[in-house]
């Protein structure tokens, strides 16, 4: 994991190489740092998504959570986040989880940070 910006446009968006395409190995969750931001790579049904690592509710480390059925569960309060749009499960009233698309390319995993 190099976490170093490879390409920057307009000083606002950075395309960052996270590591080789098989970086997660057999894991479902993998904490990484990209562009100085602590993130969590999540494998779900053949795709990989990056999410902010701290829960927006109380800051719990989501790398200790679980990914089940397209949702990432917080280990502290058991709310879950939809991995399509970051929305929190019913009954909770705080902001959505920030998600970042991950590109799987022949030269590795890439993320676009804004």
Low-pLDDT windows of residues? 1-10
Can you give the helix content as a percent range?
A: under 10%
- The CATH topology is Rieske Iron-sulfur Protein
Neighbour order of strands in the largest sheet = 1-2-10-9-5-4-3
Q: How many discrete domains? A: 1
Mean of residue pLDDT values: 88
Describe this structure as you would to a colleague.
This protein is mostly beta strands. It has one domain: Rieske [2Fe-2S] iron-sulphur domain (Rieske Iron-sulfur Protein, 3-layer Sandwich), CATH 2.102.10. It is 0% helix and 47% strand. It is built from no helices and 10 strands. The strands form 2 sheets. Strands 1-2-10-9-5-4-3 form a 7-stranded antiparallel sheet, with no helix packed on it. It is globular. The protein starts with a strand and ends with a strand. The N terminus is likely disordered.
Summarize this structure briefly:
The protein is 0% helix and 47% strand. With 114 residues, it is mainly β.
Q: What brief labels describe this structure?
A:
mainly beta, 2 iron, 2 sulfur cluster binding, Rieske (2Fe-2S) protein, seven-stranded antiparallel beta sheet, iron, 114 residues, 0% helix, Rieske_2Fe-2S
SSE blueprint and pairings:
Blueprint (H helix, E strand, L loop, with lengths): L4 E5 L3 E7 L9 E6 L2 E8 L2 E6 L13 E3 L2 E3 L6 E3 L16 E7 L2 E6 L1
Antiparallel strand pairs: 1-2, 2-10, 3-4, 4-5, 5-9, 6-7, 7-8, 9-10
């Amino acid at each position: 994991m190099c976490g170093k910006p490879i390409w920057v446009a307009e000083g606002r968006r950075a395309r960052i190489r996270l590591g080789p395409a098989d970086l997660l190995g057999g894991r479902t969750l993998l904490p990484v740092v990209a562009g100085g931001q602590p993130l969590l790579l999540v494998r779900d049904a053949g795709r990989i998504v990056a999410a902010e690592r701290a829960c927006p509710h109380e800051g719990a480390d989501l790398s200790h959570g679980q990914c089940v059925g397209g949702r990432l569960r917080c280990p502290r309060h058991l709310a879950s986040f939809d991995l399509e749009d970051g929305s929190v499960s019913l009954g909770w009233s705080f902001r959505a989880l920030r998600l970042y698309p991950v590109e799987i390319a022949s030269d590795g995993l890439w993320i676009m940070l804004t």
